[in-house]
TrEMBL record:
It holds the Pfam family Zn_ribbon_Dof. This is Dof-type zinc finger protein. Its main location: nucleus. Residues 6-60 form the Dof-type domain. InterPro entries: Dof (IPR045174), Znf_Dof (IPR003851). Keywords: DNA-binding, Metal-binding, Nucleus, Transcription, Transcription regulation, Zinc, Zinc-finger. It comes from Oryza sativa subsp. indica.
Amino acid sequence: KPDKILPCPRCNSMDTKFCYYNNYNVNQPRHFCKNCQRYWTAGGTMRNVPVGAGRRKSRSSSLHYRHLL
């Protein structure tokens, strides 16, 4: 786990945290910016991924039950 906190390349905020190594490769550390709520790989190319694209929303169970009736 990297010790130093890297600034976000999008918004330059220091409110970031290390998440995991991309593809278990120590040369590709993945970080998350709490300010703009996006992930990035240190040393990787910037990609225009929308906010919250890495998380899935859970569907409400009422829609599932309505389908069964």
